[in-house]
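Researcher: Structure prediction, please.
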Amino acid sequence: MADAERAWSTEVNGGVYVRNLMLTNFRSYTRASVAPSGTTPLVVLTGHNGAGKTNVLEALSFLAPGRGLRQASVAEVAKQGSTSPWVVAATLGVSGDDIKVGTGQDADATDGAGKRVVRMDGQTVSSSNMLGDRWSVTWLTPQMDRLFIEGPSSRRRFLDRLVLGLYPDHSRQVGAYERVMRERNRLLGDRGMHADAAWLSAIEARMAEHAVAVATARLDYAGQLAGQLEAAEDGPFPKAELAIDGWLEGLLADGMAAVEAETLYRDKLLSLRGRDMANGRTGEGVHRTDLIVTHAPKAMRADLCSTGEQKALLVALVLANAKLQSAMKGQAPLMLMDEVAAHLDESRRAALFAALASLGGQCWLTGTDRSLFAALEGQAEFFDVCDGSIQPALQ
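Model: Predicted structure follows.
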């Protein structure tokens, strides 16, 4: 790549940039590749419904910890009918360095099962969580449009994904808490009140430790994001106010020390053993936390706002998160925006495109209609997605 072509990726404030991406047996792709020139932060994929645009974004989302933007299992993203494992490989420009990263299905497990394998610069790493140590990826998809009217679990996952951008260890803490909680549920379910008390106490102590770490990270992040939202200029995307509704988070927000909160939660788990055994689940903890978002100018909860207002609030949160990461880490995330322009009016589309271009990192957008991106002609790199291939679009 010529020096002029590398100018954008190296002169921005340490943003993440995909130099090339290769897909093998992933979703609708047997084999495909795409290599943006790097002269612009915006990459636009257009094509008809079902062409595979979202599949490309999903592949990019697997360059982050977790199960990607569709929350899919390792087996679910494999191309149907393929007898070989799927692979996503990329070269990323990260703060001036080129990093080769690959992830995919364990080659020894081609029966539809198996675990996910991750490699960085040729070395296998122990967990996908390590991807979050070097960069972050954030996304907005049409499925997220229902975030404010669905149950708390969707908003909790959304919050934890945002927290991960500042605190890479957060995913490990959430996963550890959930594993220990399942162990406690199984023990109570199998043995009931005859379960070994010392064993249960040890499990509950571990739960309390992980729970406090999760709650602390959520509170710290929410406070910083609230500051970013408040500092934002008035514009087409409304300011949002945040509140975390959780028992343990509430204790910490009121000033309780972490060690005291651990003790109190451990005692609560002990007192709730009988009820949890009867219900077959743990009734109290950070797995029940909710994120409450309010449309600040209207002083109205997001779930009571119109569909358009909810979409605008979501965009405001995603943009504020990217700006916060850039400010705190000196590195903007890789942004994935699936069909985001389709339900925005012309003024909001123009404002969104301008905001994405100014973040400092690369952003990939998809749409069925290229005319929605007319404002980006000459300012973004366009690719056509069709019949299992990704080709530079004709200008």
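Model: Residues 1-7, 9-13 have pLDDT under 50 and may be disordered.
Researcher: Thanks, that helps.
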